[in-house]
Amino acid sequence: MELNGDTAGTLWSGTTAPCSVRGSTAIHHTAPLPFMVRNRGWVRYCKERERESKKKKVDQCVVPLDFLFLKCIISLGLVVFGYQVHPTVPTPQRTSGGHQCTSNNKNPSLSSYPLITSGKKKIRDLETDKREIVGVFGKTGAGKSSLINAVIGVKNLLPSGSVNACTSVMIKVEDNKQNQAYQADIEFITKEEWKDELWSMLNFLRDNAEQQRSDEEQDDYRDTVEKLSALYGEEWENKSPENLMDYRYFREIQEFVNRKKKTLTCETAKGLAAEFVKYTTSDSKDGEVQRWYWPLVKCVTIKVPNNDLLQHVTLVDLPGNGDRNKSRDKMWKQVVGSCSTVWVVTELNRAAAEKEPWEILKSACSLMGNGGECQRIHFICTKSDEIKDLGSDDHSAAALRALIFKKNIQAKEKVNKEFSQLKMFKKHFNDECFEVFTVSSKEFLRKKYLDSEDTEIPKLQTFLQHLNDCHSETLNYVSGAFGILSLIQGARRQEGADKRKDVYTELEERMDHELDEVRKPMNEICQAFEKCLSEGVEKSNGSWEKVLKSVLHPKNVKGGAFHKILKCVVENGGTHKPKKKKEINLNRKLASCLTDSIDEEFKKTFPNEGKCGPINEALSRFSLDTKKLIEKYKDVELQLIFLKTEVEKVKTKLIKVIRERKKTIYSKAAEFCGEGSMKNMRDTIEKHVRDSKNIMFERAKHEMMNQLRDLMEEILETLENTMLESIELSLKTDGNSIPGLLPEEKQQRPDYPVKVLQAH
Q1: Which one, of 232, 224, 205, lies nearest residue 325 by Cα?
Q2: What is this structure's pTM?
C-alpha cells in the first residue's frame, strides 16, 4: 500500500481525501473521517463501485478499502498500538530487516498502559472472518463439478464426467487471499488411522471371500477392493496391515508420513486439476498403472484467485452420508453442521423419483437443522437441457425451448410436493427455506437453446453474491474501529472529568436492569426444556423395546446376512454406513423419543434464521441507553460512543457463541448410548439397554439441561464482564494513559502519520 504524506495528513485531519475500494476505481470521498468510518451506506456504495469498476476496467488505485485500510485509519487517528511511543516521533532507521524505530529515550513497556493493551486486543478481536459455508451434496454423475465450475465462472477447475470420481474425499473451494495462483491444499488422515482401516478392510474381505453375498455386501466388497487397489495395485492381496504400511508405498507423499499438508500450485485451473486428480479420483486409462492416493486423503481445499463470489463463501463438495473413517466422518459432520446453505444436486429427469438425494437429506436433517445452522436448502435439478423424448416432429429451437420450460415447471412441482410430505423436516426447517432450481451448466456456456438467465445459473450466482454482500464482518470491523477511535480521542480530552463518576453510576444501574431483562426469558426456556425432556424420558422408557426390535430384528433380512451387518454396527460404536442403503444408527434410534420431544421447542429457541428466537431477541434489546446519556453528558460523548459499539460487538459475539453451542446441546440428547452397550450381539445389547434404561434416559436429560444452563450462565457472565471492563476503560482512562503524545500542532504535520505507519 502506498500512502504519501499529503494524502496521509489529509486523512488524519479529516478533510477531503481520495480513497478506493478493493478493486481498481478511485472514489473521491469528501466527508470527514468520522463519517467515513461509521457510515454503513458508504461501505455499500463502495462495494457497488467496486463491481462497476471491474466492468469498466478503470485502473486508478489510491488506498484499498479492506481490513488493512481500516487498520491504517485506526493507526493514523491515534497513537499506534504496536510499539513503544517516545516523547518525539521516532525516526525510522533502515536495517537489514526493514524499518526500526530508535530513540535515545527509555520508556516503560506499553503493557503498563491499560488503554494501549486493551486497544491492541480489540483490534485483534475485529480481525475475524467467519465464512459462509455452502455444502453441495449429490451422487457421482449428477453434475456437481460442472455446476460448481459454471457458478464460480472457472472452466476445468473440478474434473467432471469421470465415472470413477471418488465420493469419499471432501473438496472445499474458496478464494486465494495470498497470491494469484490456483492452489490445492491436501490434508491426509493419520498413519494410525490408515492402519486401523487396513485391519478392518482386510478382515472384512477375509470374512466374505467364499460366502454368497447380498447386494449390499457385494457393494461394500467392491468398494473395499477398489480402495485397496487404488493405493497398492494388486500388491495388497495376501499381505498383512504391517506389510502394507511399509515406507515404499508412501515415498511420493512424504506429507502423509510426516503429518503435514501437501500444497500444489499452478497458474491455470486446468493445470491444477491435472495435478490434484490423483488425490480425488481413480481414473486410469488405456491400461496404465498409476498409484492413486485418495484413500489417504481427508480433505482437499482448492483456492481460486480473484473470484468475487468466493470472497466470504466456501463451496464444499460433500460425500453423501459421511464416511467409515472416523476422522473423515467427524470432519463431515462438522462441515454439515456449519453449512448455512445446502445444495442437493440431482439429474432433472429423475429428481423426484431418485432415492439417494432424499436419503442424503434425511440422514443429515438433524445435523443441518437443530444440530446445525442451515438456513436454506436448494434442491438443484441439473441437465435441464437434455431432451430424450421430443414428442413431436417439430425440432426447432423455439419448440425445444418450450419443451425444456415445460419439463422444468413439472420437475419443480414434483420436487416441492415430495418435500412437503417429509414430516421430519418440519421439526427442523420452515417451508420458506426450501427452493428448487432447474439448471443447465452446458447451456449456460453455449447458449444454443436457452438464454443465460433461463439456465438459472445466474440465480445461484446472485445468491452467492448476496451471501457476500450480507457478510457482516466488514461492517462489524468498521463499527469497532470507530469505537476504538472514539475511546482514544475521548481519553485525550480533559473535559467532563468531574461528571464521569455520575455517568459510571448510571451505567452500572442500567446494566443491572438490562441483565435482569435477559435473564427472564432464559429461566422460561429452562423450564420449557425441563418439561419437554421429562415427557421424552417417559416416552423413551415405554418404547425402547419396540425401537430396539426394529433395529435388531429387521424385516426381510436373513439371519446370516444381518449377523454381518450387526457385527459392523458393533465394531463402529452403534452405526453402520452402507454405500447405497440407509444408515443404521442404533444410538440415534434409542434417542429418537428424546429428540422428538424437544425438536419443536429447540427450533423455536435456537432458530437458524437470522437473529430471531427468545435469547437473540433479548440480546438485541440489551442496551445501555447511551443515546439518552449522550444528550445528558455531552462532555463524555466519545466514551459513550465507544460503549455503544462495545455493546453491539458483545451481542454479535454472543450470537456466534449461541450458534456453536446449540449444536453441542442438541447432540447431548441425540447421542447418549452408554459405554459398553455394543460389546456383544443381540441378546447382550437388549440386556444392556434393559438394565440401563432407568438411568440412561435420565442421564441424557440431565446432560442436556446442564449444557443449556452453562450456556445461559456464559451469556450473562460475558455480558456483565465485558460491559464492566468497557465502562471502566472508557470512564477511568485519561490522557495520561496514552504515552508520548505529541503536541496537537505537531500531530497535524503531513508526515507525522506516515512516520507512525513506517514505525508500525
Answers
A1: 224
A2: 0.70
